[in-house]
Amino acid sequence: MAALQEKKSCSQRMEEFRHYCWNPDTGQMLGRTLSRWVWISLYYVAFYVVMTGLFALCIYVLMQTIDPYTPDYQDQLKSPGVTLRPDVYGEKGLEIHYNISDNRTWTSLTHTLRSFLAGYSPAAQVDNINCTSKTYFFQESFGAPNHTKFSCKFTADMLENCSGLTDPSFGFKEGKPCFIIKMNRIVRFLPSNSTPPRVDCTFLDMPHQALTPLQVEYYPPNGTFSLHYFPYYGKKAQPHYSNPLVAAKLLNVPTNTEVVVLCKILADHVTFDNPHDPYEGKVEFKLKIQK
Amino acid sequence: MAGGAHRGGGRWGAPHSPAPPGPRGCPVPLKAAAQSLCRKPTWGQYCTLLLFQRKLEIYSVEHHAATDIKKKEGRDGKKDNDLELKRNQQKEELKKELDLDVSLQFAFVLFVFQGLSSTRAAELLAQNGPNALTPPKQTPEIIKFLKQMVGGFSILLWVGAVLCWIAFGIQYVSNPSASLDSVYLGTVLAVVVILTGIFAYYQEAKSTNIMASFCKMIPQQAVVIRDSEKKVIPAEQLVVGDIVEIKGGDQIPADIRLLSAQGCKVDNSSLTGESEPQSRSSEFTHENPLETKNITFYSTTCQRVFRCTATGMVINTGDRTIIGRIASLASGVGNEKTPIAIEIEHFVHIVAGVAVSVGILFFIIAVCMKYHVLDAIIFLIAIIVANVPEGLLATVTVALSLTAKRMAKKNCLVKNLEAVETLGSTSIICSDKTGTLTQNRMTVAHLWFDNQIFVADTSEDNLNQGFDQSSGTWTSLSKIIALCNRAEFKPGQESVPIMKRVVVGDASETALLKFSEVILGDVMEIRKRNHKVVEIPFNSTNKFQLSIHQTEDPNDKRFLLVMKGAPERILEKCSTIMINGKEQPLDKSMAQAFHTAYMELGGLGERVLGFCHFYLPADEFPETYSFDSESMNFPTSNLCFVGLLSMIDPPRSTVPDAVTKCRSAGIKVIMVTGDHPITAKAIAKSVGIISANSETVEDIAKRCNIAVEQVNKRDAKAAVVTGMELKDMSPEQLDELLANYPEIVFARTSPQQKLIIVEGCQRQDAVVAVTGDGVNDSPALKKADIGVAMGITGSDAAKNAADMILLDDNFSSIVTGVEEGRLIFDNLKKTIAYTLTKNIAELCPFLIYIILGLPLPIGTITLLFIDLGTDIIPSIALAYEKAESDIMNRKPRHKKKDRLVNQQLAVYSYLHIGLMQALGAFLVYFTVYAQQGFRPTSLFHLRIAWDSDHLNDLEDNYGQEWTSYQRQYLEWTGYTAFFVGIMVQQIADLIIRKTRKNSIFKQGLFRNKVIWVGIASQIIVALLLSYGLGSITALNFTMLKAQYWFVAVPHAILIWVYDEMRKLFIRLYPGSWWDKNMYY
Q1: Which cystines does this chain contain (chain A)?
Q2: pTM for the whole thing?
Q3: Residue A273 CA: distances (Å) to CA of A67, A192, A268, A277
Q4: Residue A207 resides in a domain
Q5: Confidence band (pLDDT; 50, 70, 90) for B76?
Q6: Going by DSSP bridges, is the β-strand pair A32-33/A82-85 parallel, antiparallel, or unpaired?
Q7: Which of A1, A48, A87 sits opposite B337 (nearest CB)?
């Protein structure tokens, strides 16, 4: 095996490599002549065109099998997530810190709320209908124009004191901030059997913190999502659908201490005990108001 | 062997002028005393009690060359002057080569009765060490283990693991709450490396252990005289100067100078390759220590001869014995890398090269795409992990050990796992003759009587003696053979087949005894009926053996004198010859016929014996006549010549077939032996190493009646080269010889010359196998790419030096080894192709993730579950695949051209099947996402939003909103889907890899059951991971819906169809563009 272990000098190797790149005797470049390269490239082009075509065909067939209105499976969206506005994230989750006396610290927060509520202006909701029913708004047929279904109006003024209309500072100025809680959409999801889902915010008990129970003012009253916003029929059927919201105005937040607020959605089919998902059926945030 | 005694010099026999006192020298007065003692005739015998200190730099076994020529001369008087010249040359060569510095010293003189004193012995033992060969240096276990830890891909994975930890470290510094994912990954990688390392080490150790247990010998005992008493001590404790006693059947415990010996013969075959036992006596006969009769060597055996006893003094112990020196010559030869190790290294380089270059390329791309450097490092690691087949090296080890096990069942014990394949790529086998090609046992081969040569059966069982036995001459001859023989079966062996019985007696008598036992039946009974009156045993002076018997016929009162011996001596004593049972005068024409037959048999390399008898006239020798063997008071001339019988150490019956098979497998078989050229050539011819119609230069010269020089060397296909000729050859000449002659026999070669021959073969880019059993073979065994030692007759030195041991000493097991080696090479190709294929399917997700921003299709940990979970058993299963076509009819692979992993294999695996697999797996992935609400088109460039922990209402195509964890879970489902997609297609990949050229249907889908075990294991592991462990989030598996398992099935079928097409075109258009590019 001595022959295999012969050490080649660097120049020899370079020479070999150059010979490999261009072999003047046989006219080979990188081990193949030009015509061979053309042939092999043609083969690969053809092969990949066919493979891509087959793949595209498969995807096309897949898309044909998919219902445009309802996803085939919703097993991974059993319970809706809950989000909070304003949403400022710290190292671990939502952290909302601001200083009452320094409006720069909270104008960005109110700005977030305002821009979020822009989608709930009467102009934006013009295509939706007014709903008053206290029960689910089932629509089996496509009654709305353009083969769609009706969506119920939800306008910002339904949030009253937290709508930003009466109080542009959303209560941040006086240390009684408004937080808007939104429940994620799930197609054809029915949150509860009869009573409408309701938001419930509390202080999360922290050790060494004796807090008085959190006092909250909910808008709409009782902090409920009216059942007529459900079920959601999907983007294609309800292109103008807007999520119902609940605003929670926290009335007795102690200043200069960080508190943890937990807002849950109480409904028969909304769970908030998934240990892995902190945003399923509930939202938790740290709040620190300085004076 | 008789004669050849050069009584010059007297270096070994007579006392010498005192040499300067050596380091261990005794006081001068003692020496003088010794000398004076020696002059007295009584003590002369014991004067040889000297301690010799000699330096034997080079060992040679050419000591028989001179005698050989002499013998030839004896047979053929016509040999001319150039032979004489040659002989003189040879003598000179002999001296040169031996280069002996025989400086003898009186160290101490002892009386044989007294022996050494125990204290002196203990001193010497402490000084010189035990009388045992130093075992070859072993690599420390810890080094072996560490080698496994950093060998192959391990180093790459270690780098990956360390990078993971570094990445985490940096993350941690900037953000103490950084996720531990990269720590987990790093740890998992480290664990993988350590586990595969431990596994490989365990496999390696297991096969080494088999060897260790095999090598363990029963401790040898020696009878020694110490403190004037006989003691039995372990041979290890022998020291120089000990007086030992040896009897028949013993192994010689050290190099011994015989002081007295009776009828002893030693079997030197392990040292010199001669199958005939050499007689030993206390006489000094030759300057050459290897040749002189009064020295016996360590580890040779004393023949089980009747009443053999000897006393001798130990002159060398342990490593200083001849055997020890040859063994150290062997250990000086470096261990070369095995061909398969080189191939695997080559493969590792390719894969590591691809992994690192793709990794770095995408690292740069990722950095350019404004990814965070830490993320880019994580990508780099993922790409490396995806590219490295973590389980493959362990799989290769298992595949090799499976083959090793299979070979062990067929009596090939493999010491070094990697050697399993080496036989398969072997292109030259240098085989020793004695004991490998031959049975190492003299057997009757031919008979000549009634002026006719008869062929006897020389096969192992010897039962089919089909020659004509009706002649009256045969009756007489058979009687002589049975009676004029001193050998006896050891009692109590009635149930043992005749050829396997143990006989007390020398080799040729044993052969004759067995021969007559087979033909005549109970020889002992015959001898009893023909009572022996007197006998003269064989000795080298009169060269015949004679005995006189009463006949079994009660009416015949005559005595029968039977005699056997050297044919020319027997013929001299005869005046008549028996033809067809009748005595005829021995005329000139009869004598000529005798000579022709004698020459013919001698030319076959056989040892010829003549037989004659004589019925003593009853009147001169009445029943009461008292015969005396000393005075020989009976006629020993004018006898009646009956016949000739020739014996040879016959080839094993399986060897010719095996040699033919090697030939058709493109393997050149070269015989390298220490034995005589004539015998070597005869055996070479009879086993087919020299084929029937090929001639040597000498043969042509003889046929055409011209001088050897005039012959065109190109006409000769075969060559018989002696060690003498070899010595004069330059390496270039040897290369030319090896390249030009397809059939070569090397005779009378020394251990170094064997080494030179092996090196010469290796210069031809050949992979060389050497077979041998003797100590003299051990350097060559070590030097060879694969050394094959004989398990039964093999010496320990040979077994130590070898990589493989044939437990049944059967050369044809080598053919099995070649077959298995070739098969495992092919199957490893399949295994590697199988394993490499999915690398693309594992790599693409990361590339697509980086470039197109899809949610990650498969995680790094999940990849490891493919590499080390589902794919392990299937890739081992490919090792059980049967050969596709007759692998024994193709040439051995060229070790530089036919690589294990070639360009075609890599390209076809990566760019064809691998790509198809990737597409299939992506299809499953897209299906899962689409059915959950994310259409393929919406996934592109979704990565940033998708991976953001702070976005808990990501909208899908239906307007549904997903929290971060919900997306995460979907991503894991995607991993599982992708995993299942790869797994399903790997089943197809496994099936197509069963063959490289033939259709799967020709190979048979169900012939290799293990493949189906593999497929079942793949599915079961995947099911377990998905459904059993799906709830453990750390593993990133989820319970996948049943239908997703079938999404990739059409792709799997497509892979199968595509590969069948590939194979079809390869078969239809061999040598075409397609064949060149698509056949791996």
Answers
A1: 131-152, 162-178, 201-263
A2: 0.79
A3: 31, 17, 13, 8
A4: yes
A5: very low
A6: unpaired
A7: A1
- Between CA B388 and CA B408 the distance in angstroms is 32
Tally of CB atoms within 10 A around B481? 27
Nearest CA in chain B to A76: B966
Label residue B471 by pLDDT band (50, 70, 90). confident
Chosen from B763, B938, B949, B952 to mutate, greatest number of chain A CBs within 10 A: B952
Cβ atoms of B826 and B818 closer than 8 Å: no
pLDDT on residue B519? 84
| Domain spanning B424-438+652-809: CATH superfamily | HAD superfamily/HAD-like (3.40.50.1000)
- Best mutation target among A47, A70, A72, A77 (most B Cβ atoms within 10 Å) is A77
Q: Are B989 and B837 in contact (CB under 8 A)?
A: yes
d(CA B356, CA B163) in angstroms, rounded, equals: 13
Q: Which of A3, A54, A81 sits opposite B961 (nearest CB)?
A: A81
- The full 3-state SS of B316-327, as one line of letters, equals ECHHHCHHHHHH
The listed range with the strongest mean pLDDT (B14-23, B223-232, B700-709, B827-836) is B827-836
Q: Which amino acid is at B662?
A: C
Q: How far is CA B873 from CA B233, B391, B913, B992, B1023, in A?
A: 54, 10, 20, 16, 15
Residue A165 burial (CB count, 10 A):
14
Characterise B542 by phi-psi region: left (phi > 0), alpha (psi -120 to 50), beta (else): alpha
At residue B136 the predicted structure's pLDDT band, cuts being 50, 70 and 90, is: low
Catalytically active residues of B are: 432
- CB < 8 Å to A48, chain B: 915
Length, in residues, of chain A: 291
The secondary structure element, H or E, covering residue A41 is helix A34-65
Q: B464-622 falls under which CATH superfamily?
A: Calcium-transporting ATPase, cytoplasmic domain N (3.40.1110.10)
Judge if A27 and A144 occupy the same domain.
no
Whether this model's ipTM surpasses 0.85 comes out as yes
On chain A, the residues whose CB falls within 8 A of the CB of B1054 are 54
Q: pLDDT digits over B14-45, tens only? A: 334 333 443 343 333 334 333 433 343 333 33
At B726, which helix (H) or strand (E)?
Answer: helix B723-727
A134: its two tokens: 């206290």
